[in-house]
Design goal:
alpha+beta, 2 domains, three-stranded antiparallel sheet, 4 helices, elongated
């Protein structure tokens, strides 16, 4: 049996399993779960006597991505890291003057995993003390949202306030 088409489809599904309405924990959970599931599935498939490591890895990656993405999505919802408006994304960080971010690293655009996925160009997030880099990535927008608004600073009431990225 040729498992290459099954593996390719499973890898695409695994990478996007946790991507609907995602935040950083959803994506990290899906990728980590896929990796661990693939490893466990390959070991189980190979040790089952039939030397079915590739099929076991594919099934394990899919199950791991779904489980990891679900756990990560739960954390995103608990942490409030999925935003759907500028109001929700507005932080408590205010400054008299915006701190300049360091120069951005170069984004490496990968293959689009699904036609509905949108490329989110890499950007610097700000946690109130320092900037941190969020690499460019594909993301499936939440239902009824079509545009990702990049994080930015807004001048309000005599100070700059940091607005996290959000969907609209």
């Amino acid at each position: 049996m040729n498992t290459k088409p099954i593996l390719a489809l499973t890898a695409a599904v695994a990478l996007c399993a946790g991507c609907v309405g995602t935040g950083p924990n959803t994506q990290n959970g899906a990728v980590a779960g896929a990796g661990l599931g693939a490893l466990a599935g390959a070991i189980i498939g190979n040790n089952s006597g039939g030397h079915n490591g590739a099929a076991g890895a594919a099934i394990g990656a899919l199950a791991g991505a779904i489980a990891g993405g679900s756990i990560g999505n739960s954390v995103d919802h608990q942490n409030g890291t999925i935003y759907h408006s500028e109001y929700e994304a507005t932080s408590n960080v205010t400054m008299a003057q915006m701190p300049p971010p360091p120069p951005p690293p170069e984004d490496v655009v990968t293959v689009q995993p699904t036609p509905s996925a949108l490329w989110i160009t890499g950007y610097y997030g700000f946690d109130g003390y320092r900037y941190y880099w969020v690499a460019g990535h594909w993301e499936i927008p939440p239902p009824n949202y079509h545009v990702f608004v990049r994080p930015h600073w807004a001048y309000r009431n005599g100070a700059y306030v940091y607005i996290r990225g959000y969907w609209r």
